[in-house]
Amino acid sequence: MASFEPIALGDRERLSRRLRMFPDNEASEYTFTNLYIWEGAENIEWLDTGDFMLLRTWPKGILHYLMAFAEDDKLEEALETAIRTAKADGRRFSMHSLPAWYCDKLRARLPGRFHFEREARLDDYVYHTRDLIELTGKKYQSKRNHINRFMSVYGRRYEYRTYDPAMADDCMEVYDSWLSTHEDPESLQSERESVRRALYHAKELDTVGGVILVDGRPEAFSIGERLTGDMAVIHIEKANLRIPELFSLINREFSSHAFADLLWINREEDMGDEGLRRSKQSYNPARMIEKYHAVLAEEAD
Partners of 213 in the beta sheet? Predict the structure, then answer.
């Protein structure tokens, strides 16, 4: 059998073909872009046997599998292969970031084999696209206030542009400025690498992006892509913290320019970060995509 390999940019076509096996999957982890930009930080690897695909990560040296991509008649073989491989490496088998529908599939195909628990910190926040664009009603008053304050100062000094990789250096400066405000910027170096990959390889990844320029200089940017037929996913959104209203503006402008024809926008998870949770909740998600963790039933605590 072939061995697991790190995800490389050249794997995009073949790996994406596997990901399309579940075309209605709305979980944000399962795009080539997300897997590639986080490959370095999370040590993400993949294995394609021809019959199925396995994905696994090694964050901080701890092994986790993601969804196995296989037809129903090959699903048991795929999972048993993952279990054997984990045990051969002396590791406990576990799966993370499983959407509810996939857990139902595992229960139906392998009843009693796994024990499932919620991973709320990995739940995706999903919004109506029109809500993010129009910001109507009392619940979005604060967002409108942010944008109005920005316009009162910068209304004639800003412009929105579609992202071009020629802007990558300037956008990295925006990110590094944002990063410098954190008490422990070293802890975010893995995120910095994911942003760098997303910006410099946007063309190869076939993502879309938007940039807010103030006085001709990029000061906020966002990168995303279509996830399903009616949903987009936002992978990155950063702005100059000296102009805090930029976050509300880039959110609205990018949604409007890039994804106005789609029903939903997935803004990914909060990873258990309280500040990020408050920010995502402040946009009033229409629904959440629940995620689950699975271990072998006989090994459940």
Answer: 159, 218
